[in-house]
């Protein structure tokens, strides 16, 4: 069982007089704050469904997480990830996935963002083909954010969502035409410490999936999915056995709802290095429920460093140099397209994280040119669509894809990429070229600390230096700093030959904290959680052993238990 440093809030006098709690089934304990609006989401039947998923699949999830640990030990002892000889028959087989549902055949531009109310409305109205509403890397998983997110999604599916911005005195509601909604639950590794089932924290993704599916499957199929759905994005997988669990979860949900098998559809993010060698196998496990794979390229870079944490010969250059022109990144993208198109599903491109720069037309023009260049590369390579972090990018990206795809909904059958069959393990693992600099070290510290500070105060999607950052960027910053410190690397790009030491890193952090204070202003710095974030981030970068995820450690700081909320006898 996972342990948590929780903040316990004692009930007030009024609460003790008349305790109102959630109506929960046997074995379920709700430790998050009671709210009447949340209670409509956390109904007894919905919680029964979530508890059923937890009980049926928890042993499978625990086994999958143990397998991750075993793989990590192998890599730390000098092993390399690669194609599994035991599943060669899957990679060489002539099978295909179920055809994409008509509602999501065209996905040329997708926008992503947290399950925040105004964001949902703006994203659905953005002109993108798909909006991926995020419970994962773009959300700080506080109880309030998670439950309000479920409320918001239910209203969005029903078409009734609205929002009044008091500061701007402006109202927001849905247009007639909206993007198709996909939902991304958390990864298998993340617990939900506000809901206990049979005495242990629930699995975060089963809570996210279960509550959303239970309340929305019927209306979604009628109003959005044209008889299919709901639709999902699945993050952080490392092996096809994890996809097999998701497939079983989907089948159980379909059976509960009385809908045909294959109604639920999901796109898997290939955002870990081990998963790139499992793409055929992942699609095979989800072949009745798949709508393709996506290049989660920022997390993929993070995973490269994490996988090779004990390999001093595989150090990355500054993270700004690790783009799609690097051979290992281009190989990953090409093989993903080939695998998806061979199996009859979408091969989706990566994130454009740029934010329009309103007050500097010249800088904005340069940023938009970078976006166009990146998206042109993707569509020419054969990707069927791509991601944007900001509504302002949608017209630019839509134009690039439409100019090159024309009226075709996708490129699944028109660009096969058979040349990618020649890609080898060496291509996918090739060490990236580039240099390491003091500015790279500083940027990692500055971005990492600011992201963690925002995350601790409830924000998981953070605009920093004209880019929209989520947890993946903070993870790259953290693991790269850790690796450079661990091996005392030479900053060879400055011409100074300085080696990264704890003393140097301490000075850098101190100076970057002073810079953050200047940039955000003394008042915001004082009220924010920058000092707490600095402690967490510094501890993570200087730890003797690399933690698997920054957010697992930071999660302890946002869990708040309310003992009066609702429980049943175990």
From TrEMBL:
Q: Which SUPFAM superfamilies match?
A: Malate synthase G
Q: Which UniProt keywords apply?
A: Glyoxylate bypass, Glyoxysome, Peroxisome, Transferase, Tricarboxylic acid cycle
Tell me what reaction this enzyme catalyses.
glyoxylate + acetyl-CoA + H2O = (S)-malate + CoA + H(+)
Q: What is this protein called?
A: Malate synthase
Malate synthase TIM barrel domain span: 180-431
What's the family? Belongs to the malate synthase family.
Task: Enumerate the spans annotated as Malate synthase N-terminal domain.
Answer: 26-89
Which CDD domains does the record associate with it?
Answer: malate_synt_A
Active site residues of this protein = 184, 470
Give the source lineage, highest ranks first. Eukaryota, Viridiplantae, Streptophyta, Embryophyta, Tracheophyta
The Malate synthase C-terminal domain covers 436-558
Kindly give the InterPro entries that the UniProt entry links to this protein.
Malate_synth_C_sf, Malate_synth_sf, Malate_synthA, Malate_synthase_CS, Malate_synthase_TIM, MS_C, MS_N, MS_N_TIM-barrel_dom
State one Pfam family annotation: MS_N
């Amino acid at each position: 069982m996972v342990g948590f440093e929780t903040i316990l809030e004692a009930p007030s006098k009024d609460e003790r007089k008349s305790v109102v709690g959630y109506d929960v089934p046997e074995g379920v304990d709700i430790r998050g704050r009671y709210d009447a609006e949340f209670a409509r989401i956390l109904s007894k039947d919905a919680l029964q469904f979530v508890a059923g998923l937890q009980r049926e699949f928890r042993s499978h999830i625990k086994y999958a997480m143990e397998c991750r640990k075993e793989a990590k030990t192998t890599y730390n002892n000098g092993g390399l990830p690669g194609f599994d000889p035991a599943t060669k028959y899957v990679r060489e087989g002539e099978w295909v996935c179920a055809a994409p549902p008509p509602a999501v055949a065209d996905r040329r531009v997708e926008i992503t963002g947290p399950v925040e109310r105004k964001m949902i409305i703006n994203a659905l109205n953005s002109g993108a083909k798909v909006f991926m509403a995020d419970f994962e890397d773009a959300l700080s998983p506080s109880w309030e954010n998670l439950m309000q997110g479920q409320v918001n999604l239910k209203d969005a599916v029903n078409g009734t969502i609205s929002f009044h911005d008091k500061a701007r005195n402006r109202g927001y509601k849905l247009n007639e035409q909206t993007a198709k909604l996909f939902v991304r639950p958390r990864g298998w590794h993340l617990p939900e410490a506000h809901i206990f089932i049979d005495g242990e924290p629930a699995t975060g993704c089963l809570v996210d999936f279960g509550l959303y599916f239970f309340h929305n499957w019927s209306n979604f199929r009628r109003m959005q999915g044209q008889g299919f759905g709901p639709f999902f994005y699945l993050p952080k997988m490392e092996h096809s056995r994890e996809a097999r669990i998701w497939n079983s979860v989907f089948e159980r949900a379909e059976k509960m709802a009385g809908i045909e098998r294959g109604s639920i559809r999901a796109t898997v993010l290939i955002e870990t290095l081990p998963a790139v060698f499992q793409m055929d196998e992942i699609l095979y496990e989800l072949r009745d429920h798949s709508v393709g794979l996506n290049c989660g390229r920022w997390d993929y870079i993070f995973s490269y460093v994490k996988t090779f944490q004990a390999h001093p010969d595989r150090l990355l250059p500054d993270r700004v140099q690790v783009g799609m022109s690097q051979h290992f990144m281009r190989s990953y993208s090409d093989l993903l397209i080939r695998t998806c198109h061979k199996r009859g599903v979408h091969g989706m491109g990566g994130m454009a994280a740029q934010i329009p720069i309103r007050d500097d037309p010249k800088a904005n023009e340069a940023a938009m040119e970078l976006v166009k260049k990146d998206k042109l590369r993707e569509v020419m390579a054969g990707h069927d669509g791509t991601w944007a972090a900001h509504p302002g990018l949608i017209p630019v990206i839509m134009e690039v894809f439409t100019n090159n795809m024309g009226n075709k909904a996708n490129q699944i059958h028109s660009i096969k990429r058979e040349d990618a069959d020649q890609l080898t393990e060496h291509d996918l693992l090739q060490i990236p070229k580039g240099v390491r600099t003091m500015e790279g070290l500083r940027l990692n510290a500055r971005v990492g600390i600011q992201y963690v500070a925002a995350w601790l105060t409830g924000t998981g999607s953070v605009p920093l230096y004209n880019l929209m950052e989520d947890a993946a960027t903070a993870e790259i910053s953290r693991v790269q700093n850790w690796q450079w410190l661990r091996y005392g690397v030479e900053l060879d790009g400055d011409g100074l030959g300085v080696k990264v030491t704890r003393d140097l890193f301490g000075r850098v952090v101190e100076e970057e904290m002073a810079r953050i204070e200047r940039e955000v202003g003394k008042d915001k710095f004082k009220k924010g959680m920058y000092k707490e974030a600095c402690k967490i981030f510094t501890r993570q970068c200087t730890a003797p052993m690399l933690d698997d995820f920054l957010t697992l450690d930071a999660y302890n700081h946002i869990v708040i238990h309310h003992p009066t909320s609702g429980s049943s006898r175990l």
